[in-house]
Amino acid sequence: MAEGSSLLQQLDAGLEQLFAGWSIYTTLLCLGLVTYLLYPVFFTRDPDTHPLLLARQCSPSYVRQPGESAVYRSLETPLSYPLKSGLNVKEPGAPRWAAGKDGDLRDVWKKALRGPIDDEGKPAGEPGKIYTVLGSEGVTEHRLSDVTKEINAVGEYLVQHGAKRVAIHVPNSIEFLVTLFAASFYSFVPVIVLQEQSSEALSDVLKTTHADTLITAAGSVSLQALLEQHPGLKQVIWVVERTSRHMDWNEVPEGVGGKAEIAVWHDIIEERKSLAPTGLPTYNVEKPPPNVFAVSQGALTKGYQVGEFTQHNIVAAIAAQLSVLPRPHRINSSDMLLSLAPLSSSYPLTIALAALYSNASLALTSVSGEKVPYDAAFRRVKPTIVIAAPSTIREACKTFREQPRGMLQKYAIWQQTKSLAEGIMPKLSSEHPRPRLIYTFESSDNRADPLTLAELEDLRLLTGARTAYAFTDAKVAGAIAQTSIYDYRRSEDGEQAAFGGPLSSVEFKLVDENGHKNSDEKALGKLVVTGPAVVGGETKVDRFMTVTDFNTLAYA
Ligand SMILES: *[C@@H]1O[C@H](CO)[C@@H](O)[C@H](O)[C@H]1NC(C)=O
Ligand SMILES: *[C@@H]1O[C@H](CO)[C@@H](O)[C@H](O)[C@H]1NC(C)=O
Q1: Atom 14 in ligand 2: which residue has the minimum CA distance?
Q2: Residue where a domain terminates, one of 273, 290, 307
Q3: Residue closest by Cα to atom 8 of ligand 2
């Protein structure tokens, strides 16, 4: 009894103290705390999408051939519909019901340059912009009309110098985009080469793809070694950083003289700037621009794969990326996209092109690749859409997980986790710049473990962004499959994340091989992908895969 009363006494004393020190701030604090704790009890939101759409993320065909699984298609293009083949490009003012063309890369630039227009074809806002993030020097802003001038200057130069196949060996930069679009307008073949190649690998790639011109960072490769191994190289264009432009880069090193012509990017632009038209060059709409070669490095084989994409492959992939986003989350003119993955991979490239096509802005940073930290995306710019390699995501999640947290922070995370489990994307406070969409992707020849469901959940808690996780292959433009941005599923154990349903530009099936057999209960086998985004129309991916209970593609 005595003990009990003394406890109460203590409590009372505590309360008295609390009330003695009570002030308007304590009241506000308490009110805030109570509102914060009770808010979710009284205001519940509907899940972001209908649960049935997550339970069946793509549509299988009703029959399957012997030795094969059913054919799986995107919910946007069920079996009786044609797969998405292009951008449905219409001239401004064309009637709504008129059928559009599939289009090509020239249409992408044309539309980006024109900017937003209203229903009558009148300008309805500023076109997007391109920003270059330079380490210490800050951010340079490029208007698309100025970039068009560069496209014309470089295009004309290359045509006059007889370039037929131009290797682009530069980081994510304005030079990369200018050369890519110049190739389409001026009809030469761009060969997009991944950076971080050894000198031998580079000359090997140039030889295999019969490149006659190389655009690369000044001094990044040994010209002599290149020319020895690939005498077919006729000219080299150095891209020189602002800080080293005072040096003479036109000089040909001794012993190499006469074999290859050397030019410097900024000289070409300077010389032709006043002459080059600011508008688009005139081009033959009927004549499709040449194919785009993309050279990717196999992580396992150490060899490389050359994907020869037709313009059709690329626009189909862009169109699929545009339409896969649910209407409220489409890329629009207030977005800025930044890729921490090299644009020489077709997946980041098609998303960047989709952003340009949607009047969004691009931010280009030359730091890109597997080892780049997530925070690098937010140096000096505030992108709303970020593309990053899985290793970048994994590192960011690890740091997030290990962060020390106070009680209320832990409670907030618990709330957000609960909200995700209910299918609702929580709104995070925004003291940091927050992207709204994050894309990441696993390439078929990358043998590292895919991201786990837990990691993808950490990513959502860390960033508040919706996430698409894609499965790509060197012979398919863009991606084969990609998770729904509404799929917030998680699991306690280390369960690997699946890749979602196919995009609308492809369909896939699994075929029996080496004892991996399809049955009525389970789809299991090597992945065969068909459709407008696939090089040659069909390819077999060298991976055993399966289809989950949610109709999503996953490693077997
Ligand atoms: C972007 O511009 C095109 C025309 O070039 C227009 O059709 C489209 O509606 C614009 N989109 C946005 C989101 O402003
Ligand atoms: C673009 O989309 C975002 C997110 O969906 C939205 O908040 C914003 O208002 C949109 N901007 C325009 C210009 O439509």
Answers
A1: 332
A2: 290
A3: 334
Whether 186 is in a domain gets the answer yes
Residues 191 and 233 in one domain: yes
Q: Which DSSP string do the residues of 95-139 spell out, in sequence order?
A: -TTSPPB---HHHHHHHHHH--B-TTS-B-S---EEEEEETTTEE
**CATH code of residue 71:** 3.40.50.12780
Regarding the beta carbon of 333 and ligand 1, being less than 6 Å apart is answered yes
Q: Is 358 in the pocket of ligand 1 (CB under 6 A)?
A: yes
pLDDT in tens, the chain (556 residues): 344 445 556 656 666 776 677 777 777 777 777 776 676 666 677 888 888 888 899 999 999 999 999 999 999 999 889 999 999 998 777 787 888 899 999 999 999 998 887 777 777 778 889 999 987 778 999 999 999 999 999 999 999 999 999 999 999 999 999 999 999 999 999 999 988 777 888 888 999 999 999 999 988 888 888 888 898 999 999 998 877 777 777 766 655 555 788 899 999 999 887 777 778 888 888 888 999 999 887 655 667 888 899 999 999 999 999 999 999 999 999 999 999 999 999 999 999 999 999 999 999 998 888 889 999 999 889 999 999 999 999 999 999 888 888 888 888 889 889 999 889 998 887 666 689 999 999 999 887 889 999 999 999 998 999 999 999 999 999 999 999 999 998 877 778 889 999 999 999 999 999 888 999 889 999 999 999 999 999 999 999 999 999 999 999 8
Range(s) of the domain holding residue 187: 140-290
Distance 115 CA to ligand 1 centre (A): 6
Instruction: Say whether both 286 and 313 belong to one domain.
Output: no
What is the number of the ligand closest to the CA of 437? 2
Residue 37: inside a domain: no
* Token couple for 303: 């060899």
Measured in Å, residue 1 CA sits from the centre of ligand 2 at 66
- What is the CB neighbour count within 10 angstroms for residue 300? 10
CATH number of domain containing 266: 3.40.50.980
For residue 102, is it within any domain? Answer: no
Residue 55's CB: how many other CB atoms inside 10 A? 10
What's at 521, amino acid-wise? E
DSSP one-letter code for 303: S
CB 176 within 8 A of CB 148: no
Same domain (yes/no): 304, 249 = no
Expressed in angstroms and rounded, the spacing between residue 178 Cα and the centre of ligand 1 is 22
Q: Which of 290, 310, 327 is the last residue of a domain?
A: 290
Q: Which ligand is nearest to the CA of 436?
A: 2
The verdict on 405 and 523 lying in the same domain is yes
The DSSP secondary-structure symbol of 544 reads E
Q: Do 160 and 250 fall within a single domain?
A: yes
Q: Which residues does a 6 A CB cutoff place in the pocket of ligand 2? A: 328-329, 332-334, 436
302 and 203 part of one domain: no
Residue 531 to residue 372: CA distance in whole angstroms: 33
Q: Given the CA of residue 328, which atom of ligand 2 is nearest to it? A: 5
Q: Which atom of ligand 2 is nearest to the CA of 333?
A: 13
Confirm whether 396 is domain-assigned: yes
| Ligand nearest the Cα atom of residue 121 | 1
Q: How far apart are the CA of 542 and the centre of ligand 1, in A?
A: 39
**What residue owns the CA closest to ligand 2's atom 11?**
334
Strands 189-193 and 235-239: unpaired
Domains of the chain: total: 2
pTM attached to this predicted model: 0.89
214 and 310 inside one domain:
no
68 alpha carbon to ligand 1 midpoint, in Å?
Answer: 42
Which residue's C-alpha comes closest to atom 2 of ligand 2? 332
Taking the CA of residue 436 as reference, the ligand 2 atom at the shortest distance is 4
Based on the fold, state whether residues 531 and 547 are members of the same structural domain.
Answer: yes
At 244, which amino acid appears?
S
